[in-house]
Amino acid sequence: MDIQHIDLEKERKEILNAFKGLLRATKNRTRENTKMIRKAFDVAVDAHKDMRRKSGEPYIYHPIAVARICAEEMGLGATSVVCALLHDTVEDTHITLQDVEDLFGEKSRRIIDGLTKIPEVFDENASIQAENFRKMILTISDDIRVVLIKLADRLHNMRTLGSMRPDKQLKIASETKFLYAPLAHRLGLYSIKSELDDLSFKYTEPEVYKQIESNL
Environment class of residue 4 by beta-carbon count within 10 Å: exposed (0-12), middle (13-18) or buried (19+)? Predict the structure, then answer.
């Protein structure tokens, strides 16, 4: 048996374990919810099957981690978990918004549509004031879950920023500090806000951060 085959088998088991951890973290699941989350997981695994993150790990770990933040750290329910699992499929894979609606209903389609609009809003208005950006994000969708899933996505990206190029790290960390940390604060997610602040500081002021860390 070749080594690559063993590794892929090991990866498949680890992905399944990560998914089981997500299910355990999702509170108040009905049998129907569980089936829907499983279906979203299967769709996401298939859609992202040839993709890897900068760290080299299979891409699917990212949506699973984002979904887990939604369930475990934000206390969100099954619909948010489904949308978090699928949050990059429409932008990055062959899956369309219509596919999402056909498989998971109109509510999931609306949330994912809102999620795909957020980056455009930022790119077109890169120079707008942070306060206006936050107001705009909050009005993009009538569903607050769009903003919460986006914050969970950003939090996981910040937790795994180490594998990015330094210039990318700086750009993402600065954006997080000015836009996403205050947004988390506005929504009362204080522990997420302080973690986003800490992680931003680590990349925007690495020397000071190291000094504080060694002093602690």
Answer: exposed
pTM across the whole model: 0.91
**DSSP H or E segment with residue 151:** helix 144-159
* Catalytic pick among 7, 9, 92, 120: 92
Give the residue carrying structure tokens 């978990």.
81
DSSP 74: S
Q: State the pLDDT at residue 135.
A: 75
The pLDDT of residue 180 is above 50? yes
Best CA proximity match to 182, nearest among 141, 135, 122: 135
Q: Is 92 a catalytic residue?
A: yes
The residues, any chain, with a CB within 8 Å of residue 53's CB and separated by 6 or more, are 59, 61, 62, 160, 163
Encode 24-43 in three state secondary structure: HHCCCCCHHHHHHHHHHHHH
The gap between the terminal CA atoms of the chain, to the nearest Å, is: 49
**Of 125, 150, 148, 145, whose CA–CA distance to 136 is shortest?**
125
- Among 7, 91, 102, 131, the active-site one is 91
Count, in order, helices (H) and strands (E) of the chain.
Answer: 13, 0
pLDDT range class, residue 1, cuts 50, 70, 90: very low
